[in-house]
Amino acid sequence: MNRDDEDLDLTELGSLPPLDVDPATAERIRLRARAELARAARPIPIRRALHRAYQRSELVLVGALAASYLALALRAALLPFG
Amino acid sequence: MDPATERDLVDRLRRGDEDAFDSVYAAFRGPIYGFLARLSGRRDLAEELLQETFVRLAARATTLREDTRVGAWLYTVARNLHVSHARMTALDAERIDRAGLEDPTRPPTPFEEAAASETQRALERALASLPASYREVLLLVAVDKMEPGEAAQVVGVSPETLRQRLSRARTMMKEALAQPPRRHAAGGIA
């Protein structure tokens, strides 16, 4: 197949008529999606924001506690040799 | 859509701007629907997937990256939804395509009926007869005029793979167009 043949195919395909949904369906989909956008863009309520912050900080706090306990235990174990 | 307009729309979408969403919807509703309808061969499924595509855009609008190409993003979501649907219903797209080719009683699709000329009907028939992986690259590059690099991202393949697939798809289209039209049970041209 030469280059002209390939280009001709693409040109022909580009001439296919555009398709679209009927206006009632288009409006129904738009409203459904807009409702989702409004929900997504809504500010996060304070309780949910606090809960999320707590969840994110939980691991850090537990990790810090474990590390400090380990340090204390190590210090106590090394004390007789010091 | 020019890059500056697209960046502006993405910027406004990230702030939850409803007018920006409407602009994107108006610009891409038809092309995405056409892509899905020709990919699936079904208007009802295309409508369902179109809605899901734009609902996903709405749900993720505020978390879009600044450099998001919204057109490519929509095509990618639409294509992935179609792939998921095909898998979920356990219908191998290639098997469907083969069934469509081998069934001489297959009635014309709504797109064939809507096509204005016999040439367009023949093109729709030939397009519908291609395996989905080849049909989608032709739809993106030839029908929706997407840059091959962007189409490769949508399909999730390398630019070289896309180029090969496109070349093969063109050959298959020519072969399909060369075949004489088949008649369906009602006696009309299928």
Q: What is the strand content of chain B?
A: under 5%
For the record, give the distance between the C-alpha atoms at the N and C termini of chain B, rounded to a whole number. Answer: 36 Å
The third-level CATH topology of the largest domain in chain B is: Rna Polymerase Sigma Factor, Chain: A
Label the overall shape of chain B. Answer: globular
Total count of helical runs of at least 4 residues of chain A: 3
* Proportion in β-strands of chain A: under 5%
CATH architecture of the largest domain in chain B: Orthogonal Bundle
| Classification by helices and strands of chain B | mainly alpha
Chain-averaged pLDDT of chain A:
85
What's the CATH H-level superfamily name of the largest domain in chain B? RNA polymerase sigma factor, region 2, helix turn helix motif
- Low-confidence parts of chain B: 100-105, 184-190
Number of strands of chain B: 0
Radius of gyration computed on alpha carbons of chain A: 32 Å
Number of helices of chain B: 10
Tell me the quaternary state. heterodimer
Describe it for me?
The complex is a heterodimer of chains A (82) and B (190). Chain A is an all-alpha fold and 82 residues long. Helix content of chain A is 78%, strand content 0%. Chain A has helices at 3-14, 23-41, 46-78. Chain A is elongated and about 90 Å long. The mean pLDDT of chain A is 85. Chain B has 190 residues and is an all-alpha fold. Chain B has two domains: 1-112, Rna Polymerase Sigma Factor, Chain: A, CATH 1.10.1740.10; 114-180, Arc Repressor Mutant, subunit A (Orthogonal Bundle). The longest helix of chain B has 23 residues, at 18-40. Helices cover 73% and strands 0% of the residues of chain B. The chains are: A mainly alpha (82), B mainly alpha (190). The interface between A and B is large, with 30 and 43 residues.
